[in-house]
Amino acid sequence: MREQPEQQAPPVQRLRIRYAKRGRLRFTSHRDFSRAFERAVFRARVPMAYSSGFHPHPRISYAGAAPTGSASEAEYLEIGLAEVVDPAVVHARLDEALPPGLDVLEVVESAGGSLADLLQASVWRIALAEDPETVGAAVASFLATGSVLVERMTKKGLREFDCRAAVVRATVAPAEPVGSVVDVVLRHTVPSVRPDDVLTGLGRQSGLVPAGVPLLTRLAQGPLDEDRETVGDPLAVST
Fold first, then answer.
1. Residues 105, 207: one domain?
2. Cβ pair 124, 134 in contact under 8 A
3. Which is it for strands 157-162 and 102-109: parallel, antiparallel or unpaired?
4. Torsion region of 63: left, alpha or beta (phi above 0 gives left; psi -120 to 50 gives alpha)
5. Distance (Å, rounded) from C-alpha 208 to C-alpha 116?
6. How confident is the model at residue 97, as a pLDDT?
7. What is the largest CA-CA distance in the chain?
8. Claim to verify: residue 99 and residue 136 sit in the same structural domain
9. Which of 22, 64, 145, 223 has its CA 20 to 30 A from that of 102?
């Protein structure tokens, strides 16, 4: 009989981490980032806890990863440690070990519960070359519509869904030196509605076709306040 693997001890400390994807690193896929992060914790000498089984893996839980090609100031993950370490030390070591553009912004101790359950909505900024008047009219038409169906290729094939239902709020402002920015609060749904889906919906509804490639940036991710239409800080809940 095959010898059973050694059972690993459970983590003695869990840390929640907010990090950013900036510049060219926004094109990093989730798989590429997870590999880079595992190499970083090894180089940073972070005392990781490991899973049991024949192929132990460091205890890292990813949640709510942004689509490849979009920048983000609010990506989150949780790690389990085999020793208690000052979060500030882990912050400094990981930020030094990761490449520029993958930047650790905050590290706090977890108070328990599920990190994924706290990530209920995101605030996205969509930078467009079009003037605010044109974009504002398109957004107003979109918001006044009860349902806007779009299609996207998923792992299960081409899927049609309502992108309007996920939009909690959308505002338009001038960009510097030209163009406009659209700030959108998107409720996390199944299937997920991404900012590029909203752009597709704007085109379906009003005929808006952005010139060039819009820059998509996630500004925040966390618990949704439905009444205020705002997104909170999930790490503030953890402390």
1. no
2. no
3. unpaired
4. beta
5. 34
6. 97
7. 72
8. no
9. 223
User: Which residue shows structure tokens 């752009």?
Assistant: 199
In the numeric block, which tokens belong to residue 230? Answer: 């705002």
CB 221 within 8 A of CB 74: yes
pLDDT mean by block of 10 residues, the chain; 239 residues = 73 97 94 95 96 87 94 98 97 96 97 92 97 97 96 87 97 95 97 95 94 95 97 82
Instruction: Check which CATH number belongs to the domain holding 73 and give it.
Output: 3.30.70.580
End-to-end CA distance of the chain: 47
Q: What is the pLDDT of residue 203?
A: 96
Q: Which residues pair with 76 in a beta bridge?
A: 18, 63
**Number of domains comprising the chain:** 2
What CATH number has the domain bearing residue 184?
3.30.70
User: How many CB atoms sit inside 10 A of residue 164's CB?
Assistant: 21
Segments forming the whole domain that contains residue 145: 120-233
Cβ pair 109, 15 in contact under 8 A: yes
d(C-alpha 5, C-alpha 81), whole Å: 20
Output the 3-class SS for the chain: CCCCCCCCCCCCEEEEEEEEECHHHHHCCHHHHHHHHHHHHHHCCCCECECCCCCCCECEEEECCCCCCCEEEEEEEEEEECCCCCHHHHHHHHHHHCCCCEEEEEEEECCCCCHHHHCCEEEEEEEECCCHHHHHHHHHHHHCCCCCEEEEEECCEEEEEECHHHEEEEEEEECCCCCEEEEEEEECCCCCCCHHHHHHHHHHHHCCCCCCCCEEEEEEEECEECCCCEECCHHHHHC
